[in-house]
Amino acid sequence: MILIIEDCLDSQTLYQFALSTEKFDVKTVSNGLEALEFLEKHQPPALILMDYHMPQMNGKELAEKIKSNPNWAHIKILVISGITDLKDRARQMKADGFLAKPFELSNLYSEVKKLTELK
Known about the structure:
Rossmann fold, 19% strand, 5-stranded parallel beta sheet, 5 strands, alpha/beta, single chain
């Protein structure tokens, strides 16, 4: 399963549709707090695809909470954002991958497949 954490409904819908057509089981939430609630109530996903800038809790804060929880530390994180220093921020937050906006859907597919096959 892939959990998409994205506050922009258009982006959330695009990512969900694109990954669902590739036969991935996809769930969505709109912010970090909803993501933590989801993780508490469900089996951990194989991958979290998250925006860096979100209301209530940014990607760095959320990644720290995920990686510090022994039940979730194994979850792969793919960060998506249009910020200029995304590579450095992704490294700081111990993300497993990143995609800078704008990107081609083929890049999304290849990153997701790479991260979900590394079990």
